[in-house]
Amino acid sequence: MTVNLLDFDLEALSVYCEQLGEKRFRAKQLFRWIHQRGVRNVDDMTDLAKSLREKLRGVASVTPLTVNARHESGDGTIKWLFDVGNGDAIETVFIPEENRGTLCVSSQAGCAVGCRFCSTGHQGFSRNLSTGEIMAQLWFAEHDLRKQLKRSERVITNVVMMGMGEPLQNYSALVPALRVMLDDHAYGLSRRRVTVSTSGVVPMMDRLGEDCAVALAVSLHAPNDLLRNDLVPLNKKYALAELMDACNRYLAHAPRDFITFEYCMLDGVNDQPDHAHQLVALMREHATGGVWGKVNLIPFNPFPASGLTRSPDTSVRNFAKILVDAGVVTTVRKTRGDDIDAACGQLAGDVKDRTRAAERMARRRITGDQPLVFVANGRTGSKIGLLQEH
Ligand code: SAH
Ligand code: SF4
Known about the structure:
This protein is α/β, with parallel strands linked by helices. It is built from eleven helices and 14 strands.
């Protein structure tokens, strides 16, 4: 079996080079060929020492994922469906905007958390992706888009781990992938342009803060434990107070950053004025110093099996106004790519549930984000500017 060079972060690749009897710095050259130039074949890496090319030939290569389908939305959003073997497929979404290009990356085939409003969650869990499979999504998208757009410079400026799966339940594969995204010899993305979104795996939030403190988004969706237990079952294990404490500890590793709290607006379930007031109280109670979190309201992308519906715009606006009036920075996510089922919560890929009887969802998830919104202005809550997400 050949080694997949997409599985390595720079340190691991340096060790691999040493094991082959080569100098560690060869890994940097390899990294640049693979990640910056998109070259797959070691024979095409012309300035690489001949001895190394010979050693790698036949034993190591870049293993891409097979593309099952590609869809392009009227708004420019692109969704790829990748085959990851054994009947499983995952999805990756590119969301172009004026000044940036965001890639929404999957971390698992399916998800074990089982949130009520999420079609990946309804699908069940099949397996973790490897580092190479996470990286293959970025590697492919970046270099495919460069070809398509005839660009030689970087197309993807931001990565969000908001595709299928709970990234912090696949920690050991996630962290090397994040390191490659940040590495100057690979994608060179800044820490703040790579976002891990989590439903609240508290111990792994602590580890991520220590190992690789990228931007953090926490999927909150409810301002009290009773409701959150129902919407995000992981809350029964890590309750809100514990989760908020973990957010504070995380910020100690990421000074001057803030946490984005994701809040999916579900009609009549979590979108009432009282929920907004509770959310303000929760954030005040746990904010240890100054502004430390912002709320991103996500219009729910419905799918039939959820039995849930999207909050009307007026509820979203009222909810946002209560937060803003209380001084909470609030954005409303603009849904992108919903005509190709690429919006948040619509990414379903095609996953064989290996944990329970597979109940197949018709539709699936993911999305882009974006901004719109109000920046809190204390007492008046007037709109004082546009806020960029990342
Ligand atoms: N498992 C991680 C990351 C993937 S989900 C997490 O839960 O954070 C990425 C985001 O999409 C989360 O904020 C999630 O709550 C949201 N989401 C899931 N299903 C959705 C739906 N049907 N409509 C809108 N947003 C949804
Ligand atoms: Fe999993 Fe996130 Fe979906 Fe919840 S919202 S089921 S954690 S992918």
